[in-house]
Prior knowledge:
The protein contains ten helices and twelve strands. It has 391 residues and is an alpha/beta fold. The protein folds into three domains: 102 residues, Response regulator (Rossmann fold), CATH 3.40.50; 69 residues; 179 residues, 2-Layer Sandwich (Heat Shock Protein 90). It has a five-stranded parallel beta sheet, sandwiched between helices. A five-stranded mixed beta sheet has the order 7-9-10-12-11. Helix 7 runs parallel beside helix 8 and helix 8 runs antiparallel to helix 10. The protein starts with 7 loop residues before the first strand and ends in an 8-residue tail after the last strand. 29% of the residues are buried.
Amino acid sequence: MKAQAAERILIVDDEPDIALILKLHLEDAGYRTVCAQDGDQALAILAEEEFDLVLLDFRMPRMGGVEVLQRIRESGSDVAVIMMTAHGSENLAVECMKSGALDYFPKPFTLDDMLPRVARALAYRRAVREKQRLEEEKADFVSMLSHDLKNPITAVVGSIDIVREGRLGPVNAEQAEYLQSAIDSCNEVVAMIDNLLDIHRFEAGRMQMNIRDHNPADIVKAVADKFARVAEHEQIKLSLDLGRELPLVAVDRTALTRVIANLLANAVKFTPEGGEIVLSCRRTRDCDAQRSVIPPYARIPGGFAAQRCLVRLSVRDTGNGIPSEELGNIFERFVQARGTSVRERGGAGLGLAYCKMAVEGMGGVIWAASEIGKGSEFIALLPCQGEAGAC
């Protein structure tokens, strides 16, 4: 059983004879080794050099193996660790695994037992590193592809808009309508790209939200105005239901705008001609009642249960509805419900995933309610600014 080239193992044992035996056997198997006599020396070596695996004795003077292991993990090192002990037990194995060890073997050891464990630990570390590398490449690829796609699409939209406005010659009403449809399709692609990029930022913990106090009515009306033409073109009635004297909400304006736009775009896709979409924004009158209908699959942020004031934002449509067994999955990436209408135009399944992450990032909660044949409603509850007033 020969090792892969350049794999290095640090042997940490206060018994020189055992360390030497391990060193000879491991080097005979093709590994490169370095020995440390105690925990302090091991940590000093690890701070200066990179290793693939540490064989770490459980019982050592001054600093035990578990403490050394904990310090290795606290340093951020991803080196694989196998514990060695002359006092093996299930409880000891559990303690070592909880502290970050991959495996352990008893002393005295046999080659038939020790070498396969070493090989498995190193193979696992290689697999983890390869996965991390692929994840980094995927993130870089998504960012690059999204950037390279958005630039030409923006240029396409600008060119089409010049033609639509008649700057290059007369355009009749029918031509203008087709050109506007082309612009709308390009904007859908841009929205999908933005959703994908921000989902990756949320998942990587790199999404920065600019939380400020805003009047939700202003945001809701601005988005509804943009979708009025789209709804009219699809022969769908879009109604706005705004409560009076809505309290301020602490949100990222851009994120909330995108959430509402995604919900409306989703409703337009699944609502047939002659149907209706209602965009509603009201202050709740009974916070406990609102919280009581939140389904189990919806993630409730910490401190949400103590909120004394909530704003209820919803988009209700008269589409075909969503099967109840699918409601818990539709906020996942690349997922769409099977119960689609004949007017459904496809999509990447990213809009609702973004909505979930954005709403939760602003301290709210979002879910869907639906009945087959009667449409769906997507509801988001957002805390009022400073929890002013009671529900």
